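Supplementary Methods, section 5.1.

A reviewer requested that the exact input to the structure prediction be made available. We therefore reproduce it here, unchanged from the version used in the analyses.
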Amino acid sequence: MKIKINISSDILTKPIMAEAILETGVLLNISQAHFDRSHGEVVADVEKDKFELMCKALMDRGAKVTKLDTPIRWDENECVECSACISVCPTKVFALADDFSLEVDETKCIQCATCVDMCPHNALSLENNK
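The structure derived from this sequence is encoded token-by-token as follows.
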């Protein structure tokens, strides 16, 4: 399952993710990370049956953990198949079929919202982010 870990500036320099992994023995597969001086944000996969354990370990260290269980929403009626989403998606959620229609594989979505920002017709949306 995909999760988003938000790390505030007051704990940004602490190795909370490493500590949580060592404490729980639960591995995280990090698919996206963004850090600046104000906060950190990590999108990662964790085994579904280990989520509660990892969530508690991270929250005990001051992080906020959110389940990302709602993938990208594609409004086929609004989409003009301009392909803008294809070039910006880091996980290749979007592709063109042989007939040049847009194919969407929501299972690959890491909910980064890059495609939402790029779509000129607002055919893409995320419930949790935008």
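The radius of gyration is 17 Å. These observations are discussed further in the main text.
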